[in-house]
């Protein structure tokens, strides 16, 4: 596999392999010496056009644990901020001998463009409102760890699906892995083209094995996607009462950062059903697995 | 077939001072493009009146209407006369400037439409193309005002509030690709409003680059009610669909966006039955840096002059009468270019192009005459090739090469 | 003409394992402080068999772990991507212990080098030794085995194929290749 641009690039066998490798990586993360020599001498560039300290640190830790050289290329204060084009930046990275470029970009499809201009592997770390495949992989990993399987599970993805790259990648990946995904939210934020959907959270909860809450930005309110934060929370927020309508084994996920009190109450976020902290931990292992998959072998 | 020419006009046999033998080639009246972006003044790195004229002649055109969204905007007599003069100097096609409807294309107050009409450029078509004249009251006034000199408003139909941040057709693909959608209703609602306005004030209305099945239906109904509306469709909307955005290559980014196969079929049907009057290229050259970038940051538009006829042949077949009407006679009539679009018979200006219908050619972006290379047809094999083009009896294209 | 010659057949393999178990007991004062680390894939069942034999001979239960060295290989770039197996430390860990690495075939020595790197990331054993079922020669690194089941002289072009009942359904060692 050369690039990881979309969760659609992964078939069930490859996705499962990544999750299995991630489990091996997780074992390494548990021991005293957390480092592996696997990618020694290889260069990974973190090219971040958006502030996302969490994701950048997660990729940086993953690359460093595999002994890769890591170069952080933040768009702020760099030539990029001075108007250098993505193509020119790509040539710079090429000249630096980047074996892999991890890119976070506000424009959908920017990683696809970059892949045309560099010889190394391109790993999509979130592009606009398109996709965030490693987030979907770590969510799948978390689900598998908690539930023991993914195939056959009912997964509800709740909130601002329209603007969510996490939702798009999760729909593709979890469906590939055999889950039945239902998108839930107000009609203004749930495009019917993406799959099964419902506008009624309370009708979906009793059947759900996994409830994945998406971040809802308050700015959406001014764009009339919904009337007020209060009305949104009342109709689509996950609170204790709604959690009690879920099956006993069901888990609650959130990709972070959370708007506590908006889409999720603190009581739910901090409950034992919540996997939010595990998701962050699993992120490093999954990203190690992805880097290994892209760089740990010869490309035919 | 032999064409006899004297002083730039087609004459009867025996009166000619020169003779053109068409051989096995198909003779078409010189093509007329109602919708061309020549980029001069302002973006001479993307196209100039001269380079655009070359592309036009090579595409079989003898007249092009130059859109007003230059820098400075063609909203005064001075700018339209400059473009007109540059066209004369190039001397390859008649360049007929289109005037802006509103000052600076800002959609706030009318430009001096009468001054442009009275200028040496004799402007009759006015358009804010690239922007919609969205204020209904301003649109009504513009439609009314140009009646004084039998002008026409060419509307870029796009309700701006419904297309804020829009990147591509709103549908399955935009949802999948995470690109903000440009819904069909944003075009259709403006067309519906404007045909009613045109009826109300008894004015002529032209609709630029119709792109949806719904628009075709609205125009069909308006025409049936006797409303004086004309419409154009671009070659790319007759052929390409929104799935192409999946590569995120902005060469496929255009406004209005590529639509669905259903829309393409409705546009073809509308073009055949006359609901859509003409093919217009919306030739939109862009410098490499405006296309070799992220989709959202790229400028919309595609080259069209050199490929339009081939796409028309591909879509309509070798129906030369239909092609001559949709690409020459009808656009000349809408633009009021009396010297163009005439049938090839004695008395008509000797504006024509000779086409090899059997030839097939491969589109090579860097082989085109345009200064820019943003053709969506790169690598495609297209039917029909312009061999010679004549403007008032003067050869502008000889054996597929431009003469100056 | 390609050929496949059986070097060790069914009963031979178990006899060789028995001998290695005896050697380990001999050289380590009854396998004191010994832990066995099988290198994936076929070193793993071999390590288990050795532990079983030592238990049978001496009544001593030896901790067994598994080591996957994929992530320590120095030839990743030359090969297509390899699946990663599991590494499981033996109960009680390896710190201060006498670790006996177990593998099926000793060839270039690169696998063992990777295994030594992996071990040093896991902990700090007192001694590391190496037991192999077959030594076929052609070393590329200064590495030798402490316990060798059988030395098999080979040509570089030949392949040594080890089959074990736990994985392959049969115990057998074959030499494959084409004569020069």
TrEMBL record, chain A:
Carbamoyl phosphate binds at residues 54-55, 104, 132, 135, 256-257. Its EC number is 2.1.3.2. Pathway: Pyrimidine metabolism; UMP biosynthesis via de novo pathway; (S)-dihydroorotate from bicarbonate: step 2/3. GO terms for cellular component: cytosol. L-aspartate binds at residues 82, 165, 215. Keywords: Pyrimidine biosynthesis, Transferase. This is Aspartate carbamoyltransferase. It comes from Rhizocola hellebori. The lineage of its organism: Bacteria, Bacillati, Actinomycetota, Actinomycetes, Micromonosporales.
TrEMBL record, chain B:
This is Dihydroorotase. It is an enzyme of class 3 (hydrolase). Zn(2+) 1 binds at residues 35, 37, 129, 282. Coiled coil: none annotated. Residues 26-213 form the Dihydroorotase catalytic domain. Pathway: Pyrimidine metabolism; UMP biosynthesis via de novo pathway; (S)-dihydroorotate from bicarbonate: step 3/3. Its cofactor is Zn(2+). GO terms for cellular component: cytoplasm. One of its GO terms (biological process) is 'de novo' UMP biosynthetic process.
TrEMBL record, chain C:
Transmembrane segments: none annotated. The gene is pyrR. Residues 7-153 form the Phosphoribosyltransferase domain. PANTHER family: BIFUNCTIONAL PROTEIN PYRR. Its EC number is 2.4.2.9. The keyword Transferase applies. Keywords: Glycosyltransferase, Transcription, Transcription regulation, Transferase. Pfam families: Pribosyltran. This is Bifunctional protein PyrR. InterPro entries: PRTase-like, PRTase_dom, PyrR, PyrR_bifunctional. A motif (PRPP-binding) lies at residues 99-111.
């Amino acid at each position: 596999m050369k690039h990881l641009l979309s969760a659609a690039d992964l078939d069930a066998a490859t996705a499962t392999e990544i999750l299995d490798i991630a489990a091996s990586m997780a074992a390494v993360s548990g021991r005293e010496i957390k480092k592996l020599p696997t990618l020694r001498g290889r260069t990974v560039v973190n090219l971040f056009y958006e502030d996302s300290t969490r994701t950048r640190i997660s990729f940086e830790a993953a690359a460093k644990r595999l002994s890769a050289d890591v170069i952080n290329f933040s768009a702020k204060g760099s030539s990029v901020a001075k108007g250098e084009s993505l193509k020119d930046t790509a040539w710079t990275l090429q000249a630096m001998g980047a074996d892999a470029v991890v890119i976070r970009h506000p424009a959908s499809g920017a990683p696809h463009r970059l892949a045309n201009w560099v010889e190394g592997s391109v790993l999509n770390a979130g592009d606009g409102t398109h996709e965030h495949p490693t987030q979907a992989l770590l969510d799948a990993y978390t689900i598998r760890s908690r539930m023991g399987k993914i195939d056959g599970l009912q997964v509800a993805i709740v909130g601002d699906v329209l603007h969510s790259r996490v939702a798009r990648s999760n729909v593709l990946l979890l469906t590939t892995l055999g889950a039945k995904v239902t998108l839930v939210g107000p009609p203004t934020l749930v495009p019917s083209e993406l799959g099964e959907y419902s506008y009624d959270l309370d009708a979906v909860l009793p059947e759900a094995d996994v409830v994945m809450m998406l971040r809802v930005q308050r700015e959406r309110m001014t764009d009339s996607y919904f009337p007020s934060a209060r009305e949104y929370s009342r109709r689509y927020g996950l609170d204790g009462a709604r959690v009690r309508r879920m099956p006993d084994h069901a888990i609650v996920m959130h990709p972070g950062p959370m708007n506590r009190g908006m889409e999720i109450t603190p009581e739910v976020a901090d409950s034992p059903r919540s996997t939010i902290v595990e998701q962050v931990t699993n992120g490093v292992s999954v990203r190690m697995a992805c880097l290994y998959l892209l760089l740990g072998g010869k490309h035919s | 077939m032999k064409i006899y020419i004297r002083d730039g006009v087609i004459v009867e046999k025996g009166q000619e001072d020169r003779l053109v033998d068409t051989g096995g080639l198909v003779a078409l009246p010189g093509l007329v493009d109602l919708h061309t972006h020549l980029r001069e003044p302002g973006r001479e790195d993307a196209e100039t009146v001269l380079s655009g004229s070359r592309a036009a002649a090579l595409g079989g055109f003898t007249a092009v209407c130059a859109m007003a969204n230059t820098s400075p905007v063609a909203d005064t007599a001075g700018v339209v006369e400059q473009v007109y003069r540059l066209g004369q100097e190039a001397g390859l096609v008649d360049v007929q400037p289109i005037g802006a409807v509103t000052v600076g294309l800002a959609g706030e107050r009318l430009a001096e439409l009468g001054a442009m009409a009275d200028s040496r450029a004799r402007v009759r078509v006015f358009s804010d193309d690239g922007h919609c004249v969205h204020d209904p009251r301003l649109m009504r006034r513009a439609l009314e005002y140009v009646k004084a000199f039998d002008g026409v408003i060419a509307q870029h139909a796009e309700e701006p509030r419904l297309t804020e941040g829009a990147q591509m057709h709103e549908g399955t693909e935009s949802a999948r690709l995470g690109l903000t959608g440009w819904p069909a209703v944003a075009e259709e609602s403006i067309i519906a409003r404007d045909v009613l306005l045109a009826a109300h004030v008894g004015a002529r209305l032209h609709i630029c680059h119709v792109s949806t099945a719904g628009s075709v239906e609205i125009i069909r109904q308006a025409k049936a009610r006797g409303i004086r509306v004309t419409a154009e469709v671009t070659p790319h909307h007759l052929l390409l669909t929104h799935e192409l955005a999946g590569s995120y290559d902005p060469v496929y980014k255009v406004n209005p966006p590529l639509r669905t196969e259903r829309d393409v079929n409705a546009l073809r049907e509308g073009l055949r039955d006359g609901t859509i009057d003409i093919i217009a290229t919306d030739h939109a050259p862009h410098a490499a840096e405006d296309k070799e970038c992220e989709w959202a940051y790229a400028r919309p538009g595609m080259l069209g002059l050199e490929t339009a006829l081939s796409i028309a042949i591909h879509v309509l077949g070798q129906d030369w009468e239909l092609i001559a009407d949709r690409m020459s006679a009808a656009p000349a009539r809408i633009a009021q270019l009396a010297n163009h679009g005439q049938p090839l018979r004695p008395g008509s200006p000797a504006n024509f192009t000779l086409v090899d219908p059997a030839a097939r050619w491969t589109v090579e972006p860097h082989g085109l005459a345009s200064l820019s290379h943003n053709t969506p047809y790169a690598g495609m094999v297209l039917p029909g090739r312009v061999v010679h083009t004549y403007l008032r009896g003067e050869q502008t294209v000889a054996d597929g090469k431009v003469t100056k | 003409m390609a050929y496949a010659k059986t070097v060790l057949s069914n009963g031979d393999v178990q006899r060789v394992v028995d001998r290695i178990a005896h050697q380990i007991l001999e050289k380590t004062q009854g396998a004191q402080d010994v832990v066995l680390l099988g290198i994936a894939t076929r070193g793993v069942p071999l390590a288990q068999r050795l532990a079983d034999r030592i238990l049978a001979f001496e009544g001593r239960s030896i901790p067994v772990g598994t080591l996957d060295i994929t992530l320590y290989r120095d030839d990743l770039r030359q090969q297509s991507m390899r699946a990663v197996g599991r590494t499981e430390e033996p109960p009680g860990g390896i710190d201060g212990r006498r670790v006996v690495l177990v593998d099926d075939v000793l060839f270039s020595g690169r696998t063992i080098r990777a295994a030594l790197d992996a071990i040093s990331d896991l902990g700090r054993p007192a001694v590391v030794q190496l037991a192999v079922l077959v030594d076929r020669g052609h070393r590329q690194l200064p590495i030798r085995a402490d316990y060798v089941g059988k030395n098999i002289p080979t040509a570089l072009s030949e392949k040594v194929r080890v089959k074990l009942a736990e994985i392959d359904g049969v115990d057998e060692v074959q030499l494959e290749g084409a004569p020069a």
